Task: structure prediction
Amino acid sequence: MDGNGRWARAHGRPASFGHRAGARVVKTVLGGCEELGIEVLSIYAFSTENWTRPRREVGFLMRLFHETLDREFAEIQQRNIRVVFSGRREELDPRMRARMDDAEQKTAENGAGVLHVCLNYGGRAEIVDAARAAAAAGELSEAALAAHLYQSWLPEPDLIIRTAGERRMSNFLLWQAAYAELYTTDRLWPDFGVADLQEAVADYQGRVRRFGGRPEGEGG
Result:
């Protein structure tokens, strides 16, 4: 969800203004996913590398995550959405961890869709953690490693959307995204809406996914 800072600067405001606007867009996009029948929305809320940002900005982001979850939780429950988190939780504030655990427990039986929040998440870190767990269990294979990913029960992503013109993976779901389709838009995240989501999905629907294979007789 890129472009919060650039959007804020374009409006002559601090980065916190852009982050608040970006947080509101998640709700909009989640609603768009419901309309389109998309069952899982994964959002990259905070990466393991984001700790290098200015301390004041990091502190604001952590408060914003907590405030947004508190503010939106009742509606999430009402819409029957399950919330799950991926990332290294032990590095987060105990109060934040408790709030995350509470949200997961209270929405565990919700079946209308899944909001998958990647918080203090890094794709490389997840693979390392999964490899350690698989090795400790005595089986280091592709299947064993996949079984120890943070949310191994979730389906692999079909489509990854990058906003603000970014064209890199940025350490996001590296294992799971091996054959995901990529879509980039110059739209800054705070300006991203349901119409933009629909455009991305329409582009995805026009693609042919081969997963590394090719039908017999097809060239290229």
About this structure: The beta strands are 40-47, 81-86, 113-121, 159-162, 181-184. The chain has one domain: 4-205.
